[in-house]
Design a protein that fits this description.
The chain is an alpha/beta fold. About 15% of the residues lie in helices and about 20% in strands. The protein has eight helices and 24 strands. Strands 1-2-3-4-5-6-8-10-11 form a nine-stranded mixed beta sheet, with no helix packed on it. It is flat.
């Protein structure tokens, strides 16, 4: 031992170096340098405390059911993440947003039923994605849009029936696509069009429906697509129609790949329903392949718009109905019918051979609504500026603009007529009241020789037994006065000669 060298230092030089994050390794997990193994530990969640510098994380063969949105946020250095053989049912959007350096992601053998848009946001460097052995039924448009460098996509052993035209959009670097052992009956040319770098394509063990929609695939394989298929993958076997079952698509002539355009039958074409009722209308469709049947409510054309320009209401669900598509026999179901359901509907059936439509008219009986609706409040004002019905009055909103204007004008006219009748009745009552006694009885005249007006007490004394009304002197209305001649004469014979006296005057006493 060299002098001056501490014993502890010598021991540390002799022992193998431990990773700096070994001390913080989750319980029961094994940590090596930048690798953490937590497989087959019956975990239900991702264990906390995984070192942030981990680049390879094994979590396979556990019982993890979900990934929280922030669970993987501290693991920004991950390069490889293995989550196969767990119980994941869904993936939250942007759950991998912090893994911008991830190269390989294994999700094989889980219970994923679908993939939401934005699930793979942040994985700009991902090269390999394993999704085999799940329960995927369909792939929506732009599902893999955020994987520009993906080279391998494994989707085998799912239950995929529908592959939308833009489901693989953005995969310009994809070299291998495995869609074998699914439930695909057809695939469109547009689906494979974004795959400019594709080198291996696996389509075997699907129940292919060999009709006119699959004609392009056979021609494409014969022209140049054979280089993408192995000798085993070239055996694309037809499952239907029965006359072509168990035959290879490449061995069938193009004239045998036919489609029968759909035909539609709706019975009856017009129904009048009462408010609150339920209604079912069947749309029978036939053709090959089996048509996809869709019900939609047709928007009413606006003023100045031709009826032929009426468009479906944005693909919105039929009010009160399911609004979903069905195959073969589409059923329109409307529950608790209101005036909003009234209008024109359309049943559309479509397949690879074309499309067919059939209109249906629904009328709603208004009598019950009009009887139950409360009378509208009377308003005095310009017609059209104040609502004559409450905003929730479905009966009024369902009427046309011309009918609404007519009703509003009629209500305003009735209100004005009622007001005029009330005024005439009041006037007649007043006239009758004044005409009950002889002239002069309805008014009390008092000669006022004082400088002050009569008080109410004085006037009360002047009321007679017939019940004259109480009046107040109005000095501004002179009822009568002696003529100038009589005034002059009266002054001559007055008791005080030479002293001018104010002539007597009478004033009317008003209420």
């Amino acid at each position: 031992m060299a002098p001056g060298v501490p014993t502890l230092l010598l021991l540390s030089l002799c022992l193998p170096s431990l990773p700096p994050h070994a001390a913080s390794c989750p319980a029961a997990c094994r940590c090596y340098s930048t690798t953490v193994e937590c497989g087959a530990l019956q975990l239900h969640i991702v264990p906390p405390g995984i070192p942030p510098g981990t680049q390879t994380l094994f979590l396979q063969d556990n019982s993890i059911t979900r990934l929280e949105s922030g669970t993987l946020a501290p693991l920004a250095a991950l390069r490889h993440l293995y989550l196969h053989n767990n119980s994941l049912r869904a993936l939250e959007p942007r759950v991998f947003r912090a893994q911008s350096h991830l190269l390989e992601l294994a999700l094989t053998g889980n219970r994923l039923h679908g993939l939401r848009l934005g699930t793979f946001t942040g994985l700009a460097q991902l090269r390999v994605l394993y999704l085999a052995g799940n329960q995927l039924v369909q792939l929506l448009d732009f599902t893999f849009l955020h994987l520009p460098r993906l080279q391998e996509l494994h989707l085998q052993e799912n239950s995929i029936e529908v592959l939308e035209d833009q489901a693989l959009a953005g995969l310009s670097s994809l070299a291998l696509l495995d869609l074998s052992r699914n439930q695909l009956g057809t695939i469109s040319r547009e689906t494979l069009q974004p795959l400019a770098s594709l080198q291996v394509l696996r389509l075997t063990e699907n129940p292919w429906r060999c009709d006119c929609a699959l004609h392009w695939l056979g021609a494409w394989i014969k022209e140049g697509g054979q280089r993408l298929l192995s000798s085993r993958d070239k055996k694309i076997i037809c499952a239907e129609p029965p006359r072509l079952a168990l035959q290879s698509l490449l061995d069938i002539s193009s004239s045998s790949l036919i489609c029968i355009p759909p035909s539609v039958h709706v019975e009856p074409l017009e129904v009048t329903a009462n408010l609150g009722e339920d209604l079912r209308v069947a749309c029978q469709a036939s053709g090959y392949p089996q048509p996809l049947v869709t019900w939609r409510k047709v928007a009413q054309p606006r003023e100045g718009q031709l009826p032929s320009q009426a468009q479906p209401e944005g693909g919105a669900p039929v009010p009160g109905g399911h609004g979903a598509s069905d195959t073969g026999s589409g059923m329109l179901f409307l529950a608790n019918i209101s005036l909003a359901h009234a209008g024109k509907y359309e049943c559309e059936a479509s397949n690879a051979g074309g499309a067919a439509r059939m209109p249906f008219q629904l009328l709603v009986n208004l009598s019950q609504q009009l009887q139950l609706a409360p009378p509208p409040p009377l308003t005095v004002g310009p017609v059209g500026h104040e609502p004559l019905h409450e905003a929730s009055s479905m009966a009024f909103r369902a009427l046309g603009l011309a009918m609404q204007t007519t009703i509003a004008a009629a209500i305003a006219f009735l209100a004005l007529t009622a007001l005029l009748l009330a005024t005439l009745i009041c006037r007649r009552r007043r006239r009758r009241k004044k005409a009950l006694g002889p002239p002069g009885e309805g008014a009390l005249f008092v000669n006022d020789y004082s400088d002050a007006p009569c008080t109410f007490a004085q006037l009360e004394e002047l009321r007679d037994e017939r019940g004259h009304e109480m009046f107040v002197i109005d000095r501004s209305k002179l009822l009568f006065a002696e003529s100038p001649a009589e005034t002059a004469g009266g002054s001559a014979h007055g008791p005080a000669q030479g002293i001018p006296l104010q002539p007597p005057a009478s004033y009317e006493i008003h209420c």
